[in-house]
Amino acid sequence: MIIALLTLLKGFIPLSYLMLDGHFGNNNAMQMSQQVGLFLLSKLRHDSELYLPYSGADKKRKYGDRLNPRQMDNSYLVQSSTEDGVRTDVYQLQSLYQKFAQPVNIVILLKTKLTAKLDQTRHKKGRRAKPRNGFYILICGGFENKLL
Description:
The chain has a domain at 41-141. It contains two helices and eight strands, in the order αβαβββββββ. The protein has helices at residues 2-9, 27-35, and strands at residues 17-19, 39-44, 50-53, 63-66, 77-83, 86-97, 104-113, 133-141. Strands 1, 2, 3, 4, 5, 6, 7 and 8 form an eight-stranded mixed beta sheet that branches. β1, α2 (27-35) and β2 (39-44) form a beta-alpha-beta unit.
């Protein structure tokens, strides 16, 4: 299907990226996009098990520490901005994911609500609502260098 689309668009629109829904953030989609010469951009699940490459003396070991998107090292921080009481931090790094055949570039968008106004509100069940902090993990397959 992608090959037919690329053939149809050839000469009209040069394509470099294949952006797919989070359902397609998997090894098969990455391999397919690389076969046709495109870079894959997709969202990963929030519970994806991402690991840093192992950098110790044991050469048989491949996976290092597991990544926690809520507690990222500042060495991976690319950009930080604050708007309307919400801080957005953008991290980028090369990571290992057990469901992928090769290392992948990961961009993590971490949003943190700085004000605690939500603590005053209550859920339907009477519990206090907590500030919402969220993150998104984007896979950027096929990129060798930094994206941002």
